[in-house]
Amino acid sequence: MFVCARRASAASLRRAHLSTTTHLTPVAEHDIAHFSEFLSPSSIISSLSPRSSPAQELEPFNNDWMGRFHGRSTTVLKPKTTRQVSQILKWCNERRIGVVPQGGNTGLVGGSVPVNDEVILSLSSLNKVRSFDPVSGILVADAGCILQSLTDYVAPHNHIMPIDLGAKGSCQIGGNVATNAGGLRLLRYGSLHGTVLGLEVVLPDGTILDQLTTLRKDNTGYDLKQLFIGAEGTLGVITGVSILTPPAPQASNNVILALPSFDNVLPLYQTVKRQLSEILSAFEFIDRTAYDLAVKHGQGRALSDEDVAGAECFVLVETSGGRREHDEEKLNDLLELLLTADKPLINTGVLSQSPAQFSSIWALREGVTEAVSKEGKAYKYDISVPLSSFKRVVDDTREHLRSKGLLHDRAVKYVIGYGHVGDGNLHLNIVADAYLPEIEDALEPYIYEVVASFRGSISAEHGIGAMKTHALPYSKSAVSIDLMKKIKHVFDPRGIMNPGKVLE
Amino acid sequence: MFVCARRASAASLRRAHLSTTTHLTPVAEHDIAHFSEFLSPSSIISSLSPRSSPAQELEPFNNDWMGRFHGRSTTVLKPKTTRQVSQILKWCNERRIGVVPQGGNTGLVGGSVPVNDEVILSLSSLNKVRSFDPVSGILVADAGCILQSLTDYVAPHNHIMPIDLGAKGSCQIGGNVATNAGGLRLLRYGSLHGTVLGLEVVLPDGTILDQLTTLRKDNTGYDLKQLFIGAEGTLGVITGVSILTPPAPQASNNVILALPSFDNVLPLYQTVKRQLSEILSAFEFIDRTAYDLAVKHGQGRALSDEDVAGAECFVLVETSGGRREHDEEKLNDLLELLLTADKPLINTGVLSQSPAQFSSIWALREGVTEAVSKEGKAYKYDISVPLSSFKRVVDDTREHLRSKGLLHDRAVKYVIGYGHVGDGNLHLNIVADAYLPEIEDALEPYIYEVVASFRGSISAEHGIGAMKTHALPYSKSAVSIDLMKKIKHVFDPRGIMNPGKVLE
Predict the structure, then answer these.
(1) A-chain residues within 8 Å CB-CB of B211?
(2) SS3 B199
(3) Cβ contact (<8 Å) for A423 and B483?
(4) What is the edge-to-edge ordering of all strands in the sheet holding A251-259?
(5) Digits of tens for pLDDT over chain B (504 positions)?
(6) Which among B167, B175, B61 has a CA at the least distance from the CA of B114?
(7) What are the strands, taking DSSP E only, across A273-332?
(8) What is the third-level CATH fold of A376-462?
(9) Which cofactor does it need (chains A, B) (predicted)?
């Protein structure tokens, strides 16, 4: 498949963003007066009169946490009920005021801050658990509930949330659903397209679409809720979520394996899946460069120098199951099988023997991100490509940069790969001395073209947001994008919802 | 929620079906001539000249397997490639000829036969496996592949299909996806909305929508494929499916439990989930009447008369796991826990000790259907309601029939309930001496109203088809139905795709 897409410079992106909102009206003072009729004063932050809130109150809403995307909104609304959300949208739709729904604002692609001066609709005050059924494990919650709070809420009932992310302390369930968040539990519990049972959504004209069922099975017509999962707030505002929470595992364990060659990763994955079957909960890949960086930046080594010698890459395997002794027996048998094979797939493996060692092994994997940020400036790509091509994508990118004369101490220092083998999700990081235009030019559209050549995804879990709208054609055909635009028009004919996101 | 829906008589349904297709053109001889330009003679069955196929060749395509729904199509086309499907649809769209996609024709709601004289597009010749990756378990297959063939195809790789149905020997994967089939493995592997990774769909105008990715994660815009899952062929024709197949479990086991009271089912379900955790693969409920009927009609009893005395209902628990001895230990411990409790939730339980006993326990559950058909004429409702209301729905229906004077030997003989507790899916069967209009009038809309009062689903897994279009408002709001119609219009503005199905 050959894909041709226009690549936008920063300047043209800025122009595009301005033109994205020219059909929209800025918020005016009389709009604030209208909102004040049904919102309490604490639910309105606005630099406009009569609120005249100080600029710093708006700042955290106008900027993303990476400091990369910046909006110029004058007004943040924090409704407390679905009805208030409906009243806000009805008014904004009539007045053609752009609306940006904002959850925890923890996204990585600028999806939750305005591209211009749209109203920010913060869901943070819509944060009650509506119901939890400990028998079925079905939780119904307001969209603004923080993921960690929900995890804490179901824990006493021996349930867990089906998703887990680094941002769990800030991100909200509505935002998780709107961005189809992936995270660490996808291998085991599947995507939100399977675990979300129902949604309550306010459509751009204020209509409330109530599909907040608690049914596991419902074959009555088109499954509309699926459209909102991953739409990044461009079709409506998710106000309530019904989600299936799995029973908490009673025991977790992990092991780190050193492999002589990347070629062994795939047969290893097959063996591990067969041996561990239903208790396998993570299978994470770290290449040698990434491993060395993590160790260099202070991660306690689970493996000795001798263990590591001759290893081309590493794999972290986690199990979660209903009984510790059974899981340990399965893991021990797996290790024995691997180490006593005629042609061993691994050089060595270390099984955690304590909660501290368990954490230490995870810290090695999770420490790669921190090591990268300490080492320099990183270009991060979150892509889906076939498992078998992980190493090739990393190696080819490195060679490509070398051929451009960019692989040296004052340009690109490292090209590393790590990620979720089980999900086909590779984190490709290019660690540079500084952000340089020539590096960016060498990387894009090069990497998007590589991804397209594998029929991969340019965004496995981070989404499109404002950052990748121009790159969407690398992963989606013109037919798909045309249908997306038609669906956008059905739900949001005036284009007020999160303008400039997902679709150009 | 109060839902008001019009109930249609058989006569008005017939009229509705005829008016459903008045905007469409019947197939004519020159259409057959056109199809002959790109289809081989064996791919065209038509009573029209020059094919002049005998009527009996068309019969199996025009009638559903229950003999309940009857079409009057003159022409069946059996394309062998996606391109041929595209050519057919392009022509039919231009000529406004209605098209009914047909897989194994095993549905229960008349979704796969014409309501009038539409063309039948049989997918049965589009039946090749395109690829299977034994590492990821991702299978890509033509839509016409029979479910059992795919099960056989992945078996040597130690994988299973994530769905399993009674109709697996005839039903096709494309039909499974189009109807969002549930079946016996949903509790364990989730719905097709989670396991289907990609689809190839031919849109009504002949455009091929290629979203046949093999990615587990892809967050690039709206997840369009989800709309086709469960759309019952009303938005386009599914021609290819990419699906995630799980590793085959190494061991399966089951146990039948006798409960003194229905009230114990829910606490039992909680205990079983906690104890068996990830190896639980089925939790099926059978009420006493259903159990007695199965035994009366020849099911070998796993339980003795003494065991059964005082039991109000029964539960079948199945485990599937990676190691037999671990699973057996967990099951044995569960039984001991249940039997030695201060206030036991069960009277007794019998664990299968051999493959023959394993099958015999399942036969008891599956034998309910056969027993019902031997006992009389059955009105079958496939509904989703909260687990806690299963018994109440059955009891209330029985009382309702009694209050109408219809509960006696020459009218309704039994009202029974059984089904998938884990999925919230109740099969409510009313067994009568004969089909009588007064029974039907007593049952509908009564049962749909009961379901609506619980915010349940009038069709948990069977779909809407031609049979339940009039009842859709009991499960979906006017806002939802209006959006469905708009989406239908986006994909199929001329209304050629499976007319009269899903939406009135």
Answers:
(1) 477, 480
(2) strand
(3) no
(4) A348-351, A251-259, A313-321, A280-287, A412-420, A425-432, A377-384
(5) 333 333 444 444 545 555 678 899 999 999 999 999 999 999 999 999 999 999 999 999 999 987 889 999 999 999 999 999 999 999 999 999 999 999 999 998 999 999 999 999 999 999 999 999 988 899 999 999 999 999 999 999 999 999 998 899 999 999 999 999 988 788 899 999 999 999 999 999 999 999 998 888 999 999 999 999 999 999 999 999 999 999 999 999 999 999 999 999 999 999 999 899 899 999 999 999 999 999 999 887 788 999 999 999 999 999 999 999 999 999 999 999 999 999 999 999 999 999 999 999 999 988 898 899 899 988 889 999 988 899 999 999 999 999 999 999 999 999 999 988 888 899 999 999 998 999 999 999 999 999 999 989 999 999 999 989 999 999 999 999 999 999 999 999 999 999 999 998
(6) B61
(7) 280-287, 313-321
(8) Alpha-Beta Plaits (3.30.70)
(9) FAD
Domain-wise residue ranges, chain B = 22-248, 251-371, 376-462
User: Cβ A278–B249 below 8 Å, yes or no?
Assistant: yes
Nearest C-alpha neighbor of B28 from the set B61, B50, B55, B60 = B50
Indicate the residue type of B34: H
Is B405 in CB contact (< 8 Å) with chain A? no
A chain contacts of residue B267, beta-carbon cutoff 8 Å: 135
Q: How many angstroms separate the CA atoms of B76 and A223, rounded? A: 30
Specify whether the CB–CB gap between A33 and A91 falls below 8 A: no
Whether B480 and A221 lie within 8 Å, measured CB to CB: yes
Pairing of strands A119-122, A75-77: parallel
Give the whole-angstrom CA distance, residue B79 versus residue B88: 8
Respond yes or no on whether the N-terminal peptide bond of residue B249 is cis (omega within 30° of 0): no
Q: What are phi and psi of A147, to 5 degrees?
A: -55, -45
CB contact under 8 A, B247 and A330: no
Q: Is the peptide bond before A134 cis (omega within 30 degrees of 0)?
A: no
- A226 — contact with chain B (CB < 8 Å)? yes
Contact A217 B136 (CB under 8 A): no
The CATH architecture annotation of domain B251-371 reads 2-Layer Sandwich (3.30)
Identify the CA nearest to B327 among candidates B246, B247, B250, B422. Answer: B250
Q: Is B132 exposed, middle or buried (0-12, 13-18, 19+ CB in 10 A)?
A: middle
Question: Is A457 near chain B, with CB under 8 Å?
Answer: yes
Tell me, which fold does domain B22-248 have in CATH?
3.30.465
Contact B266 A388 (CB under 8 A): no
Say whether the ipTM exceeds 0.90.
yes
> What is the value of pTM for the model shown?
0.94
What is the C-alpha separation between B162 and B169, in angstroms, rounded? 15
Least CB–CB distance from A487: residue in B186, B222, B424:
B222
Tokens of B192: 């097709």
Tokens of B151: 């099960």
Shortest Cα–Cα distance, A130 to chain B (Å): 15
The closest CB to that of B219, out of A210, A230, A326, belongs to A230
Interface touch B224/A480, C-beta < 8 Å: yes
Distance in angstroms (rounded) separating the CA atoms of residues A199 and B308:
43
Domains B22-248 and B251-371 share a fold: no
